[in-house]
Design a protein that fits this description.
The chain has 347 residues and is an alpha/beta fold. The protein has one domain: Aldolase class I (TIM Barrel), CATH 3.20.20.70. It has helices at residues 2-10, 15-42, 75-79, 124-131, 154-165, 190-211, 228-241, 262-265, 277-290, 306-315, 324-329, 332-346; strands at 51-53, 56-58, 62-64, 85-91, 104-107, 112-115, 138-143, 171-175, 218-222, 245-248, 270-273, 297-300, 319-322. An eight-stranded parallel barrel has the order 3-4-7-8-9-10-12-13, surrounded by five helices. Strands 5-6-11 form a three-stranded antiparallel sheet. A two-stranded antiparallel sheet has the order 1-2. Helix 6 packs parallel to helix 7 and helix 7 (228-241) packs across helix 9 (277-290). 46% of the residues are buried. This is Dihydroorotate dehydrogenase (quinone). One of its GO terms (cellular component) is cytoplasm. Substrate binds at residues 70, 115-119, 175, 180, 250-251.
């Protein structure tokens, strides 16, 4: 129904406007009793899907990637579609509008999206208010820096977000890989990234002691455009800083072998969706093999089918996340992936 009826209708309109409309529609439908219907249709409840990583128990290994519910407005309602975890953000200390519109583009022929949103969000403290209601699902907090903050002061922004979210999320993701904030990817270099992660680890230990709680897992989200040498650096950084894992990968700045019109291909921003499938899997496999599976990996990028998800799991991912595939395929994709995982266990 989604691909035959709902998606063709939604795709007639501006993608950013559709995103906001969809949020309102899901919230309304959930409020009038559809939440249980969504859970009945899309959820796969099977203990064989459970995964335990960095001290957290995930009810299934399929999550929603950051960028969809930036301000933590709809995480419980979205969990009704069968997600095992929801990642909010990217959040920054101060609210920011992001880049000028139009900044979100569908590449239908490629089943892809180009976005140059630029960390548009209402700020971490607004998200904290939204997170104060009870959670029906594990929540990850994806954190970044404000556009106006120079890289030499970036750690302060990440620490503000970390402190604000500590009591309200289950794990953290450090985003230094978005291509839409000028200079942000420079923080992926070994020296600044090591320093940033060590600061966050130190803060994690301090807050856990003060609050008499466990430390929160910290993961690093990386770009798919890193070279093999840079990926080896990432493995070394994870070891040196003792963070808990890696999310591979963010969007790409590459535009290889696209079928869409030249004007769409030339839009600046990060590309996600089908064209990223192969590269993100290659990055996952490289990190897993070269590190000898030394740390957990969450695989994201171009998952449009159950087979895509299984490939990422086979390559070394422990969990997977959806974004563009969720938009193109609809919520039934979550169910198809979880059922495929169960069926593989049965076989």
């Amino acid at each position: 129904m989604y691909k035959q009826l709902i998606r063709p209708l939604l795709f007639q309109f501006d993608p950013e406007g559709v995103h906001h409309f969809t949020f309102r529609a899901i919230r309304f439908l959930s409020s009038i009793g559809f939440a249980g219907i969504f859970r009945t249709i899309y959820s796969v409840n099977d203990p064989r899907l459970e995964r335990e990583l960095f001290g957290l128990k995930f009810k299934n290994p399929v999550g929603l990637a950051a960028g969809f519910d930036k301000d933590a407005k709809l995480y419980n309602e979205l969990s009704d579609f069968g997600f095992g975890f929801i990642e909010i953000g990217t959040l920054t200390p101060k609210p920011q509008d992001g880049n000028p519109k139009k900044r979100l583009f569908r590449l239908k022929k490629d089943q892809a999206i180009v976005n140059r949103m630029g960390f548009n969000n209402k700020g971490v403290f607004d998200a904290v208010e939204n997170l104060k209601k009870s959670h029906r699902v594990l929540i990850g907090g994806n954190i970044g820096k404000n556009k106006v903050t120079p890289n030499e002061l970036a750690a302060k922004d990440y620490l503000i977000c970390f402190d604000a979210l500590f009591d309200h999320v289950d794990y953290f993701v450090v985003n230094v890989s978005s291509p839409n904030t000028p200079g942000l990817r420079e923080l992926q270099d070994r020296k600044p990234l090591t320093a940033l992660l060590k600061e966050l680890k130190k803060e994690n230990t301090k807050l856990a002691k003060v609050k008499d709680r466990k430390e929160k897992p910290i993961l690093l989200k990386i770009a798919p455009d890193l070279t093999d040498d840079q990926l080896l650096d990432i493995i070394g950084i994870v070891k040196d800083t003792d963070i808990d894992g890696v999310i591979a990968t963010n969007t790409t700045i590459a535009r290889d072998n696209l079928k869409s019109d030249i004007l769409l291909k030339e839009e600046a921003g990060g590309l996600s969706g089908r064209p990223l499938t192969k590269r993100s899997t290659e990055v996952i496999r490289f990190l897993s093999q070269k590190s000898n599976k030394a740390f957990p990996i969450i695989g994201v990028g171009g998952i449009h089918s159950a087979e895509d998800a299984l490939e990422k799991l086979d390559a070394g991912a422990d969990l997977v996340q959806l974004y563009t595939g969720f938009i193109y395929e609809g919520p039934s994709l979550i169910k198809r992936i979880n059922k495929a995982i169960v069926n593989r266990i049965n076989d």
